[in-house]
Amino acid sequence: MPEAAILNSGSHSLWPRRETLETALPFLALLVMLGIIFAVRPTVFSYFGLTLLFKLAIPLMFAALSQMLIINLGEIDLSNGAFVGLVTCIVAVYLEKAPGHAVLLLVGTVLVYVAVGWLISVRKLPSIVVTLGMSFVWLGCAIIILPAPGGHSPAWLIDAMRWKPPLMPLPLWTALGIAVIGHWALKSSSYGIVLRGAGANPKSVARAGWSLVKARLLLYAGAALLAVIAGLFLSGITTSGDPNVAPGYTMLGVGAVILGGGTFNGGVVSPIGTVVGALTLSLASSVLSFLQVAPVWQIGAQGLILFLVLAGRVLIGGRRL
Amino acid sequence: MHCTENMTRQSRGRSGTASLTRAALVLALAGAPLLAHAADGVATGDTSAKKIAFSNSYAGNSFRQVMVKSWQEVTAAAAKDHLIADATVVSANNSVTEQASQIQNMILQGYDAIVILAGSDTALNGVVKDACAAGITVVSFAGIVTEDCAYKVNYDWAAMGKIEVDFLAKKLNGKGNLLEIRGIAGDSTDADISNGIHAADKAWPDLKIVNTVYGQWTATVAQKEVAGVLPSLPKIDGIVTQGGDGYGAAMAFKASGRPLPLIIMGARQDELALWKSEHQANGYETISVSATPSVSQVAFWVAQQILAGKEVPKYVEVPLLQIDQSGLDAWLAKVPEGGAANPFYTRELVTQMIDANIHHTALPPIPAPK
Q1: Are strands B207-214 and B262-263 parallel, antiparallel or unpaired?
Q2: Are B248 and B268 contacting, i.e. CB atoms less than 8 angstroms apart?
Q3: Is B195 on the interface with A (CB under 8 A)?
Q4: Cα(B53)–Cα(B324) distance, rounded to whole angstroms?
């Protein structure tokens, strides 16, 4: 008996449980990609190198977290990328010359975003259809504000994105910060259970006496706010605005959420996993160019990497997404 | 490294037999005739270990595809001559974030120079600044960036308008009616050329621009638009154009039975062929002024010369391709049907351009092919 017990416990420690593996997957994927890049060019492993490598992941992390809050409700937001593009235009055109104007416009877009979310939940509309429509509305508004890419972000914003904090590069501090805050808000705080329950099991949340409407509105407002931050930081990095700057964010965001351990069922998402997933996906194209993959193959190969990583999750998890 | 700098300085000071021999050798390889001139222009610092990358914002139309092909031809030739170690080209799909992240990767991959055709004149400034901070030479061309640390290689579009008007004024003795064919409304290049035309026309009070149409730099569109306004027009003596539209304009005039005015041609094969057949039939003489897709080669040599130690001004103006009657046959023989004249820029020619920009002298003309 003791022998069997030892063997048993031994096998347990050698083979971590499925859940542990699943949680570790985005980290593993990130480490593998970083490993390849460092092997090709060791000099990337420096303060400067890591800053450059992850700089454009900063806005993507916020966009992915925004998408995560919507997926948490069992829905999807196909307008995320267009919304971020609109924010960069508002920032580049108004924030420097007429800050009051810019803030009003941004608050206005957040209110519209929340109103659309409210409409989706009250009228039980399919979010895919409504948000797809909204993506064209956001794009149209952006083109009215800024017909051709340009404008200029305020100097303080550009400087903020070039800030070199001590110890770690800015993108890594940002990742750590929002992962911790996100984890606390959704996983540790007492109201976080209600927020997750609003997606996983709305009926029991309502029966327990919590306001479903309030929880949903909070999630939509949070998603809009995170998308605004993504647009703000993106225009700080590119120093300008562009209606078509971020169409890829919609799908990359969804990919990051799923890669990070989320499911489309609602209520099952991980802020830490999403942040790591966003970092991983932003590396996919870099890995390919470091490996000198011909440009014509890169787009397809990037999709293949995404597919492999997500397939890995399904294989380990052994359940539907 | 010190050796490199030494050699550069020596060759620029026209001393040191070794470097002179080397310069002569390289010149012989490149087939340049102007040894004496080039020896004080071309920097011959050792760039055989340098790597140059080209970030192109878009590769979805024929102009851009010829541009990328021209880049690949010139870099392959330069690598063969040991003037660079390696060159690459990456195209973004008109997405500024994609282009920005590609440039960031180029910085990390350790390229010595990055040549950029920017999708936006401001959105890449952040990453261009990063590249400069990493000690990388950044050269933007055609679609240039506004960041100060980057070198800019571009055409003077207003000058194109002046060349056209001056030619017509001379031919018509400063008197006549002009029709203007523009490109695409709202495009900045279109506005620059048109402004140049109108500014130059102010000097000739009797040379009147009587109407304007938008031909979208396309023969078929230009033909349709010109045909549409022709019945309402007085006698037209000359047509100022933006390239690609001359053939269509001529077809519209022929269809209406009007005499062919003096049309400024672009560099497309149909325009040059029409000009030649008209010249043979009735002595028709005009000029062709155009930008060329192989301007990517100019940007390449500018980057290579900076790496080789040459002092280059932050703004390098590229001469427009001008073809006159004497060069017409030579150019036409080289242009494939459906294509456009696309010169191969040598290091010597580009160095002459750089020197002309330094001394503010006339830009060297692009010689006709042999």
Answers
A1: unpaired
A2: no
A3: no
A4: 35
Between CA B320 and CA B366 the distance in angstroms is: 8
- Which residues touch B355 (CB under 8 Å, ≥6 apart)? B41, B361
Residue with tokens 């909070």: A218
Q: Is A129 helix (H, G, I), strand (E, B) or coil?
A: helix
DSSP character for A266? S
Question: What pLDDT was estimated at residue A20?
Answer: 76
Amino acid sitting at position B75: T
Cβ density class B170-207: b for 16+ within 10 Å, e for less: eebeeebbbbbbbbeeebebbebbbebbbebbeebeeb
pLDDT tens readout for residues B153-196 = 999 999 999 999 999 999 999 999 999 999 877 667 788 899 99
Task: Single out the residue of B285, B320, B284 nearest to residue B163, CA to CA.
Answer: B320
ipTM: 0.73
Q: In 3-state terms, what secondary structure has residue A150? A: strand
* Best mutation target, A43, A245, A279, A282, to test chain B (most B CBs within 10 A): A245
CA distance A70 to chain B (A): 24
Q: Which domains does chain A have, with CATH numbers?
A: 17-317 (1.10.3470)
pLDDT exceeds 90 at position B123? no
Q: Which of residues 129-168 of B touch A (CB under 8 A)?
A: 129-130, 134
For residue A251, give the H/E element and its range. helix A248-259
Among B44, B42, B66, which residue's Cα sits nearest to residue B339?
B66
Query: Mind listing the domains of chain B with CATH numbers?
Result: 2-149+292-319 (3.40.50.2300), 157-290 (3.40.50.2300)
- Alpha-carbon gap, residue B368 to B370, rounded angstroms: 6
**Inter-residue contact B172 to B237 (CB < 8 Å):** yes
B192 phi/psi in degrees, rounded to 5: -60, -45
Cα–Cα distances in Å, from A159 out to A99, A155, A238?
Answer: 17, 6, 12
Q: Do A52 and B90 touch (CB under 8 A)?
A: no
A:B CB pairs within 8 Å: 92
Length of chain B: 370
How does B320-355 read in b/e, with b if 16+ C-beta sit within 10 Å? bbbbeeebbeebbeebeeeebbbbebbbbbbbbbbb
Chain A residues with CB inside 8 Å of B101's CB?
A: 56, 282, 285-286
Is B151 in contact with B140 (CB distance < 8 Å)?
A: yes
pLDDT of residue B229: 95
Minimum distance, in Å, between the CA of residue A270 and any CA atom of chain B: 26
Give me chain B's average pLDDT, please: 86
Parallel, antiparallel, or unpaired: how do β-strands B86-91 and B113-117 relate?
Answer: unpaired
| Residue B267, amino acid | A
pLDDT of residue B63: 77
